Amino acid sequence: MSGVAFEVLAKDGAARRGRLSTAHGLVDTPAFMPVGTGGSVKAMTSEGVAATGARMVLANTYHLMLRPGAERIAALGGLHRLMNWPHAILTDSGGFQVLSLAPLRKVEEEGVTFRSHLDGSENLLSPERSVEIQRLLGADIAMAFDECTPYPASFEAAEASMELSMRWALRSRESFREAAGYGIFGIVQGGVYEDLRLRSAACLVEIGFDGYALGGLAVGEGRERMLRVLDGTVPALPQRAPRYLMGVGKPAELLAAVRRGIDLFDCVLPTRSGRTGQAFTREGPLNLKNARHADDPAPLDSSCPCPACAGYSRAYLHHLTKSGEILAAMLLTAHNLTYYAGLMAAMRRAIEAGTLESLGVPQEETG
Questions:
Q1: Distance CA 227, CA 200 (A)
Q2: Is 28 a catalytic residue?
C-alpha cells in the first residue's frame, strides 16, 4: 500500500511511541487530535491550534457534506487550504452522526438514507460516497464507513451491526484511491462482546487497512467495560499499524488506553470544557465559575505556556466566564488543548524512558 507510513520508535510494555507520516507532515504518537467538526476547532484559529502542539485535527464528513458541501470545498482547494491548516487531517466517516443527528433515517445494505438536520433534504451516505467525500475534502486519513453500535445492545443486535459494518468496510477499502501520504483506517465494532470484536478485527486485518480504529466505545458502557474491550481486542491488531480509539476522552482514560497500546485519540472534551468554564491542570480540573477563583491572582498553571496562563489570572478568567465573554472560551480552550498536547508529550517521553507505569494524572474532581 502507498498510504501513510507508521513507525514504532520505542515500547514500554504494550505502550508504543511512534511516528505517523502523512501527506501533510509527521504526527508523533501517542497523539490527541482536537475536534474540528465543521472545519474549525471551536473558539480557536488554526494557528492557535498548531501553537498548542497539535499536528493532526479531526473533521467530520457528515457536517461538511451538508455545509458547505464536499464539492465546494474541493473547488476551493480542499479543507487544508480552506481552514488554513497545513498539518494532517483525519476525517470520520459520518456514520455516527447520521445515526445520532439525522431525525429521519433508514439503514439498508446500500447505506443510510437520511434527512438533513439542517434543512430536511434527503441524502444517501454509502461507503462509496463517504470515501469520495473524504477524498474531496483532502483528508490525510479517511475512515471506513460504519454503523456505530449503540449501547446497550443485545449480542444479536451487536452482531448484525458489526457484520454490516464489515461489509461496508470492504466496500470502503475498495473505493479508496491509493496515493502517497494518504490512508484509510478500518473501524472495529462489536459492542462490548469480545468475540464479536475479535471477529471484526480479523475481518479488517484480512481486508487490509493503513490503520485500525476501535469504534462504538465511550457511548455509555463505562470505563471498566471499555478497558476490557481494549484488553481483549488491541492484541489482535497488527503491530505495524497505528491504532485509534475514537471519542476518548478524559486524561485518565487516555493514559490507560496508551498503556494498552493505543496511538491516536480524539474527543470534544477539552474544547467543550473550555467553552463551559472548565480547565484541565496538573492539579486537577478547575471550574472557573466557582467563586473561590474570584480573588485569585495566580495563573491556571504556572508551568503552562498557553496564552491563558502566560498573561491572565484565575480571577480574570473567572470574571470572563461569569460574564459570558467570548474571550473566556478562547483562552480556556487554548489552555485545555495545550494541556492535552503536553500530556501526550509526557507519555511519549515516559515510553522512551520506560517509565510510563509511574506516570500519573490528576484526580477528576472539579475544583
A1: 17
A2: no
Domain residue ranges in the chain: 5-266, 268-357
Q: What is the CA radius of gyration of the chain?
A: 20
For residue 292, CA distances in Å to 276, 289, 295, 325 come to 17, 9, 7, 19
C-alpha–C-alpha distance, residues 23 and 115, integer Å:
34
Name the residue with higher pLDDT: 106 or 259: 259
Q: Across-strand partners of 58?
A: 35, 90
- What is the CA angle 229-230-232, rounded to 5? 65
CATH code of the region 5-266: 3.20.20.105
pLDDT at 95 over 90: no
Q: Which of 12, 140, 210, 266 is catalytic?
A: 266
Structural contact between residues 112 and 106, judged by C-beta atoms closer than 8 angstroms: yes
**In this predicted model, what pLDDT tens digit does every residue of 262-282 receive, in sequence order?**
999 999 999 999 999 999 999
pTM score? 0.97
Enter the C-alpha cell of residue 296.
485569585
266 labelled catalytic? yes
Question: Residue 93 contacts by C-beta under 8 Å, 6 or more apart in sequence?
Answer: 61, 130, 134, 142, 143, 144, 145, 146, 172, 187
26-57 per-position pLDDT tens digit? 999 999 999 999 999 999 999 999 999 999 99
Catalytic residue among 12, 92, 140, 263: 92
As a whole number of Å, the end-to-end CA separation of the chain is 49
